[in-house]
Amino acid sequence: MSTDAQGERLSLVKTAKTTKTTPAAGNAGRRGARRRLGPGRPIPYGRALGPLLLLAVWSAGSAAGLIDTRNLSAPGRW
What we know:
Layout: H1 46-63
């Protein structure tokens, strides 16, 4: 390896000198206020909402004649 006049090793790649910097003035008071990714707050009675919506669409579709009764009869009719 070759060295320069001060005795430091020479390199083909220059590296940045590390210095300690201070945070920007606007971010000085913030600490860890990041939002995590996720599903968010749970919907009240969310587990019952899916089946109730399915029944509502099924009933409305049967009443409107969009669902053939030979394939799928209206809910509540046996």
